[in-house]
Design goal:
Blueprint lengths: L1 H26 L16 E2 L14 E6 L4 E4 L2 E2 L4 E7 L2 E5 L2 E4 L4 E11 L4 E11 L6 E2 L7 E3 L3 E7 L6 E4 L2 E2 L1 E6 L2 E5 L6 E8 L5 E10 L8 E14 L5 E3 L1 H4 L7 E8 L6 E5 L6 E7 L8 E4 L2 H10 L1 E18 L4 E12 L5 E3 L1 H4 L7 E8 L6 E5 L6 E7 L8 E4 L2 H10 L1 E16 L1
Parallel strand pairs: 2-9, 11-18
Antiparallel strand pairs: 1-4, 3-7, 5-6, 5-8, 8-9, 10-12, 12-16, 13-14, 13-17, 15-16, 17-18, 19-25, 20-25, 21-24, 21-25, 22-23, 22-25, 26-32, 27-32, 28-31, 28-32, 29-30, 29-32
Length: 443
């Protein structure tokens, strides 16, 4: 009897255990990672393969060629109550847990949003790089080419194509599109200022992404040029009755070699003349220019040491007759600003000691930039430089032997091919026989 009671007890425990397990199994499923979550709970995106942000910038989710579909699966909770939407550069492109679609080439900003039936939401933002093919049509990548002034006609170099029929700035289609001699011309549409993805369409209807452009109401200003406004107004110049005077104190800041730029409009008058002198008209900076209506605005002259001696003593007076002066600008050439990618002191020794600049940091370097490698030579049996990627599979700068013959900094132009390599696997500076102290770039 005793053995029978033990058997009945064990059977009861087994059945109870089975019931608990069954209850747990019935409440959970592969579709709902947290089976206790309900539609009243806040949603979560559970993916661990979406990169974290670094230095205030989102990480790069992946880098693919434009002929490869963008495919990705998002895992959320509570799954049965959550809808996932996908936003590319601010536009909704898809709804669902799994995306599989082609995208235009470009460096995109991807936002994945999970929203529950109760209106609760969360999101993850990341970068997505879609690389163009080497044979794809491409627009010039320098900063001036990629500056679009609202309402003006833009002409930009375009390669790898025999024609362009349509141009899109963001979602807006440009007008008056023409293509001749590898130059694309179009009128910039009226739109808000900002950064926009530009795409073009050829005669076959094939559309190509051309990456980001700046849209502004202002004209482009070369970053290697500093402009300082000395005076601005609306003055009908009429010799002693109406002229513009800039004090000696203000002129003391103008360096020798700068360009003085006078912005003006012609007005109806019996004649037109310009003269730039000092406060008491005793010494001329620009002697009288008669027939001034034959000149186009702006009138410019180089500010010499003799000019500076005059103006630093008694200022600069702009006078004459028959024109309206609206602005006086000083234009100086300045060295382009350098952005530091890495700084330290590493004696480069192949795999034992090198410098790696991450994918996220290299993503900020535009095509056409100049990379500067600051270095010092050290005693060694030989000296060599190599710039490659993280796994040494693709070179940005193939091995340079006899590197001791080069002066610091070593510089090279960052091409589209370089960017495709570094945006995928970063940039590694290696070699032998030198100390690397800084890696920078200028645009």
């Amino acid at each position: 009897m005793k053995s029978m009671k033990i058997y009945r007890y064990m059977l009861t425990v087994a059945l109870v255990s089975f019931g608990v397990a069954a209850a747990l199994t019935s409440c959970s499923s592969d579709d709902d990672p947290f089976f206790t979550a309900t539609e009243n709970d806040a949603p979560r995106i559970l993916n661990t393969d979406i990169p974290e942000w670094s230095k205030g910038e989102p990480g790069t989710l992946m880098s693919i060629e434009r002929t490869t579909n963008f495919t990705f699966d998002v895992v959320t909770t509570p799954k049965r109550y959550t809808t996932v939407t996908w936003w590319l550069d601010g536009e909704k492109i898809f709804e669902g847990d799994s995306i599989d679609m082609p995208l235009l080439a470009g460096d995109h900003l991807l936002k994945i949003v999970a929203t529950t039936t109760k209106g609760l939401s969360t999101s993850r933002t990341t970068k997505l790089i879609v690389r163009p093919l080497d044979t794809d049509p491409a627009l010039a990548s320098d900063a001036k080419s990629r500056w679009l002034t609202v309402g003006e006609t833009k002409t930009i170099a375009c390669t790898n194509t025999t024609g362009v029929t349509k141009v899109f700035v963001g979602t807006k289609e440009a007008t008056n599109v023409s293509f001749n001699n590898d130059k694309l011309t179009f009128d910039v549409p009226t739109m808000d200022e900002g950064e926009y993805m530009v795409s073009i369409e050829d005669a076959t209807g094939m559309r190509y992404g051309c990456n980001w452009f700046t849209v502004s109401n202002d004209a482009y200003v070369d970053p290697g040029v500093k402009e300082t406004v000395l005076w601005e107004g609306d003055m009908d110049i009429n010799w002693g009755d109406a002229n513009v005077f800039i004090s000696a104190e203000k002129m003391s800041d103008v360096p020798v070699g700068a360009t003085v730029r006078l912005i003006y409009e012609m007005i109806d008058a019996e004649y037109h003349a310009l003269r730039v002198t000092n406060q008491d008209w005793s010494k001329d900076i620009v002697p009288q220019v008669d027939g001034f209506d034959a000149y186009t605005s702006p009138y410019e002259f180089t500010y010499t040491a003799d000019h500076k001696a005059i103006a630093d003593e008694k200022g600069m007076l702009i006078t004459g007759f028959g024109y309206k002066l609206t602005k006086v600008i000083i234009v100086e050439g300045v060295a382009p600003a350098e952005t530091t990618l890495w700084e330290g002191s590493t004696e480069i020794n192949w795999g034992d000691a090198n410098v790696f600049v991450s994918v996220d940091d290299m993503a900020a370097v535009p095509v056409g930039a100049t990379i500067h490698l600051y270095h010092e030579m050290i005693d060694a049996e030989y000296h060599a430089l190599r710039v490659t990627n993280q796994d040494w599979s693709k070179d940005i700068v193939p091995q340079v032997d006899g590197f001791d013959a080069y002066t610091s900094p070593y510089e090279f132009t960052y091409t589209a091919d370089h960017k495709a390599i570094a945006d995928e696997k970063g940039m590694l500076v290696t070699g032998f026989g030198y100390k690397l102290t800084k890696v920078t770039f200028t645009e």
